[in-house]
Design a protein that fits this description.
The chain has about 240 residues and is mainly alpha-helical. The protein has three domains: about 70 residues, no CATH class; about 90 residues, Winged helix-like DNA-binding domain superfamily/Winged helix DNA-binding domain (Arc Repressor Mutant, subunit A, Orthogonal Bundle), CATH 1.10.10; about 45 residues, no CATH class. It is about 50% helix and about 10% strand. It is globular. The relative contact order is 0.09. About 5% of the residues have low confidence.
Length: about 240
């Protein structure tokens, strides 16, 4: 949850809504057949709907946690039918590493180093991709290097890090070599750009402005999201 709070500022989303989601996630799971919560909640004209009526239709009983924080969302009862992801599947490498290192910065640092194939990375880039504070990541990298879990060396005045990918592929039973590990994707840069594009498309869908004005705003949008897309390995057309 702390990591999600750290990432909130980087995403074009309402931080208050993220706070409501975190409050909801921290609630005890209700019984599917148990009584509804007796928590009092506010109903004000300024309450913000989380979903469009086209998506959810009739709201019915609002979720009390969201309503208490000024958001209206249908009440959801967890069915308990979900299961843990299969850590043996390559796509679930992050979950496998969490089983090995725990759900902290160490597993995220290793996920990045094991999947990034374009050379060593410094602590700043790893911190940026992992969504943890740079000091936290630096301490983690120092510990991993001291245990010889990863390779560290100096490049000028900067310390850079590299994972022993072939050895780790064997340890994790990912395949006979590192090529069987999943490919790196910069989700923390790709998702904000994708969300901004989707929000722009939804906003522009009902506009009656001229093609010239819409094209001008589209160019401004692409200019804003291009740096994030390029870090994620995507280059928008000129």
């Amino acid at each position: 949850m702390q990591r999600l709070r750290n990432l909130t500022a980087r995403f074009p989303v309402d931080p208050g809504l993220v706070g409501a989601v975190l409050a909801w996630a921290g609630e005890p799971a209700p019984s599917p057949r148990g009584p509804t919560s007796q928590r009092k909640h506010s109903q004000h004209p300024e309450d913000i709907p989380v979903f469009s009526p086209d998506v959810v239709g009739f709201i019915g009983e609002p979720d009390p946690v969201f309503a208490e924080l000024g958001y209206i969302r249908p009440r959801v009862v967890r069915s308990g039918k979900s299961s843990e992801p299969d850590a043996r599947q390559p796509v679930n490498l992050a979950f496998q590493l969490r089983h090995l290192f725990g759900p902290g910065s160490r597993s995220e640092v290793m996920r990045i180093l094991l999947t990034f194939t374009d050379g060593p990375l410094d602590a700043a880039r790893i911190s940026d991709e992992a969504g943890f504070a740079k000091r936290n990541v630096s301490d983690t990298l120092t510990s991993l290097a001291a245990s010889r879990t990863v390779q560290a060396r100096w490049s000028g005045n900067e310390r850079i890090f590299l994972a022993y990918r072939d050895k780790w592929a064997t340890v994790l039973q990912a395949g006979p070599s590192a090529k069987y590990l999943p490919a790196f994707m910069s989700w923390v840069h790709l998702f904000p750009a994708a969300l901004e594009i989707l929000a722009w498309l939804e906003k522009e869908a009902g506009t009656a402005d001229s093609d010239y004005l819409i094209s001008s705003r589209a160019r401004d949008l692409i200019e804003r999201v291009t740096p994030s897309l390029e870090i994620a390995g995507l280059t928008p057309p000129a």
